[in-house]
């Protein structure tokens, strides 16, 4: 929904800035998902509940790859995108607090190791900045007139 809303807003309002921002969000999330899946296949790390069934009791059954945390990665990707597009402290602070709480929840629920959450945060922030760079390259004419 977060990727579609700015695009729909652009169609309804005719705001070209919203159109380019929606492209940036879609590209950032797409890059993030591709990076997450590539890292999960590369590292092939078991989740804590699967690796240590007698020590870690996840809130629900978990299976699949652990590194990096996909929820954390998308949360930090969103926070970084918001901060890139609206560089104000009162946007960045709540966005990163929310993203941090998503990461904490993954630990609390027994779904991930701390390094999974840190890796997810780095992946999310990195892909957001990569997306911003790519968008400036892809849409040079727009950014020259901004």
Question: Quick gist of this model?
Answer:
The protein is 75% helix and 0% strand.
Description of the structure:
This protein is mainly alpha-helical and 146 residues long. It has one domain (4-145). It contains 7 helices and no strands. It has helices at residues 4-13, 16-43, 48-51, 70-85, 89-108, 114-138, 140-145. Helix 2 (16-43) crosses helix 6, helix 4 packs across helix 6 and helix 5 (89-108) packs antiparallel against helix 6 (114-138). The radius of gyration is 17 Å and the shape is elongated. The chain starts with a helix and ends with a helix. The mean pLDDT is 84.
Supply the key terms:
single chain; 146 residues; 7 helices; 75% helix; 0% strand
Secondary-structure topology with pairs:
Blueprint: H1 4-13, H2 16-43, H3 48-51, H4 70-85, H5 89-108, H6 114-138, H7 140-145
Helix pairs in contact: 1-2, 2-4, 2-6, 4-5, 4-6, 5-6
Rg on CA atoms, Å: 17 Å
**What percent of residues are in strands?**
under 5%
Catalogue the unreliable spans: none
Number of strands: 0
Largest sheet: none
Alpha-beta classification: mainly alpha
Report how far the terminal alpha carbons are from each other.
26 Å
Average of pLDDT: 84
| Tertiary shape | elongated
- How much helix is in the residues? over 70%
Q: Helical region count?
A: 7
SSE series: HHHHHHH
Count up the domains.
1
